[in-house]
Amino acid sequence: MRLLIGNHLKNAMDTLSANRMRSLLTVLGIAIGVTSVVMVLALSGGVQMLVEEQIETAGGNIIVVRPETGRGVGDRNVFAQIATTQTHVGSSLTEIDVEVIRKLDGVDFVSPLAIVEVNLRGEHEVEAVTVVGVTSDLNDIVQFPMRDGHFLDSELTGRTAVIGHSLALDLFGTASDAIGRTVGVRDEVFVVVGLISELNEPINYNNVDFDNAMIVSMGHAREMWPNLQIQQISVRTENRESLSGIAREITDRMMESRYDQRDFSVRYGADIGHPAEDLISIVSTMLAMVAGVSLVVGGIGVMNIMLVSVAERTHEIGIKKAVGATNGHVLMQFLFEALILSLLGGLLGLLFGYAFAFGASLFTPFRPVITGEILMVAGLIAVAIGAVFGCYPALKASRKNPIESLRHYR
Predict the structure, then answer these.
(1) Are residues 67 and 34 in the same domain?
(2) Domain boundary among 213, 239, 268
(3) Could you tell me the pTM of the whole model?
(4) What's the rounded Cα separation, in Å, for the pair 345 and 28?
(5) Which residue ranges of the chain lie beneath pLDDT 70?
(6) How far apart are the C-alpha atoms of 136 and 151, rounded to whole Å?
(7) Residue 274 domain-assigned?
(8) Is the residue at 323 inside a domain?
(9) Contact status, residue 62 vs residue 233, Cβ threshold 8 Å
(10) pLDDT tens digit string along 249-306?
């Protein structure tokens, strides 16, 4: 049996080598589809790993509560998901929810996040800046690395703000002496009391690029924007072991205050993800569908070249059967050729996929991931394409009549 497999492999390689250009084009057809799949998996996995690392850095004991608009992610159509992924229209979260969570046992810190985009005035005017209304607890949850000054203090009565490193450069042209300077928001003036060190984390579970944001107290934010909505409630528990229990208790208490209406989600651990995770999943699914079409086209290319090969080698098939080859031997011979083409395409697609993914990562804050699951998926796709699309030509070759085949000459 081992001798037969080795013989089939050798014959398949010899046949494909004799038609290098044709074989290469077929391999490229498979490689394009596999490249798309690998890129999608590597980049989406990179986003998830980035967020998980951020949560682990903060201690791993974080829970986030977010509004759920519509009927829930699983029930909404694609267009509704895209429309409500990054902005929570008609957020269901209120400050009452914050106080309900704050009173629970095992909860150390709680902070709402209310986001608005406005123009700011320093030495320069900066348009469409993210202003975040929070409580002083947020620093204990996120643990910002402060370059200068301090975070918001609940005991301070004046209008104070904490700004990110990049925003300081945009407003004042420097980040070295931002403390004590003033920032104009509408007709109000805020004094900068804290400067966050450069983070370079535009993608995070809070959905706020704190490098380019200004943080103010929730009270002052409410005074300026009375209709401001809470996009997220961040919670830090006493320890990681209590996460699931406290998450269930938060859900129960909020359901009670809403008369059992589930218009929010409570997430922790690996499920926190990024608020735009639904959009990322949708885009990944669409790209995977495009990759699926490419794989089908590549598979049709495999079938085409194998059918041509069967037609060209009809006489050879007759000779093999005349000297004792069975239908199974002929079937395996051609099936091996299809599998080799697909596996070469899968290997090439894997290399191309990671090359493109790493190229794309040069312009993003996350790196693509390389996992055994992705390697397995690429291999299984290649084998499946070869087996499915190579099966019909191999069966057609194995069923040829040896007498008629011997009479066939090109």
Answers:
(1) no
(2) 268
(3) 0.68
(4) 6
(5) 1-15, 54, 57-59, 69-90, 157, 203, 270, 273-281, 283, 365, 409-410
(6) 7
(7) no
(8) yes
(9) no
(10) 999 999 988 877 888 989 887 677 655 555 566 767 777 787 788 888 889 988 998 8
